[in-house]
Design brief:
By secondary structure, the protein is α+β, with helices and mostly antiparallel strands. Helix content is 44%, strand content 17%. The protein has twelve helices and twelve strands. The strands form four sheets. The protein has a five-stranded antiparallel β-sheet with strand order 1-2-3-7-6, sandwiched between helices. Strands 8-10-11 form a three-stranded antiparallel β-sheet. α4 packs parallel to α9, α5 runs antiparallel to α6 and α5 crosses α10.
């Protein structure tokens, strides 16, 4: 079916308003939330209720080289949210309407009274209640999806782990190979984008909310916890939160996770490896440009230390306790 042409781009509020009006939906008061990597996201009022409206663009694939693909990821997000919202109704958005031919998705707004994790950390916040809620959610997400049979997703696990491991592979090919082999050894549900730009923290209702599920696929679910806490040292190294805050936040996350989903010594080693690769991935600001685009001597020193800490995590650190102690030291950063 050929997509209908509209007088305005569906990446803009005007075009979306026209399109939705033609579907019998009156949307007003559009507020741009993000002009993201492969989508544009607005908050708008539908019948007086805040609603999220997302329009997706063609995705990039980085495997084996960067190329623009013909499809978008939004079909995966709509399907995943349909399954997850009943399990986590206060954490995950509910799908209100989905228009696959136009790549437009309408969802409930789970974040209207919460703060996105990225500015939250940049403002020096790292509260125990949020760390524990996030750790618990990630453990419950693993458990609740453990029996899911793999279904078709736009993003493939080998594409995703390649994209997230390119810097690791360049640093030391054996690490990249280990990362790919470990990640692809399982076929369980993975939310790979559970990082500070896709987690919101609230002080009323649910302390944690989760968004952006379009990259979901089936791989190693043990990636999800270190995917988040492996980025926390970056915010500490750049001075947005203290080493003590970083260490406490990571410790609370891990503790809350293990209260729901025990972590075996073997999985502890694997998660530490993933945390190190995640830190290395962010060494030069990959998708975190706002905190590391500077190239002065001090910024370069900090970027070098991010790599050093990621390498140390992979090569030398053998337990969560040791990892937390190293994060807390901080004085050498």
């Amino acid at each position: 079916m050929k997509m209908k042409e509209y007088p305005y781009s569906l990446d803009g509020a005007d075009g979306l308003q026209v399109f939705l009006f033609e579907q019998g939906i009156r949307a007003t008061n559009f507020e741009l939330l993000s002009g993201g990597y492969t989508s544009t996201v607005f908050r708008a009022a539908l019948d007086g209720q805040p609603t999220i409206i997302k329009h997706a663009r063609n995705r990039d694939s980085f495997y084996p080289i960067r190329q623009v693909m013909s499809e978008t990821r939004i079909r995966t997000e709509a399907e995943v949210l349909t399954y997850l919202h009943p399990l986590f109704p206060t954490v995950v958005p509910n799908v209100l309407q989905f228009y696959p031919e136009q790549d437009v998705l309408l969802m409930t707004d789970v974040g209207q009274d919460a703060q996105l994790g990225f500015p939250y950390l940049l403002e020096g916040k790292a509260e125990s209640i949020h760390a524990r809620a996030l750790g618990r959610f990630l453990a419950e997400l693993k458990q609740e999806t453990a029996d899911w049979q793999p279904f078709s997703t736009i993003e493939q696990p080998f594409e995703q782990i390649w994209t997230r491991g390119m810097e690791v592979d360049l640093a030391y090919p054996a690490w990249g190979e280990r990362m790919r082999n470990t990640y692809l050894s399982q076929q369980k549900f993975v939310w790979p984008d559970g990082h500070p730009k896709n987690v919101l923290f609230g002080n009323s209702g649910s302390p944690v909310r989760a968004i952006d599920f379009d990259c979901c696929h089936f791989g190693d679910p043990d990636y999800m916890l270190p995917n988040f806490f492996g980025q926390i040292p970056v915010f500490s190294i750049f001075g947005y939160i203290t080493p003590q805050q970083a260490a406490q936040f990571i410790g609370e996350m891990i503790q809350a996770y293990t209260e729901v989903e025990p972590i075996s010594p073997e999985n502890e080693q694997k998660m530490l490896f993933y945390a190190g690769t995640q830190t290395i991935q962010r060494q030069d600001g990959k998708w975190l440009f706002e905190i590391s685009r500077a190239i002065d001597d001090e910024a370069l020193r900090k970027k070098a230390f991010i790599f050093y800490f990621g390498r140390k995590t992979i090569v030398e650190i053998n337990s969560f306790d040791q990892y937390i102690q190293e994060v807390e030291k901080g004085i050498n950063w």
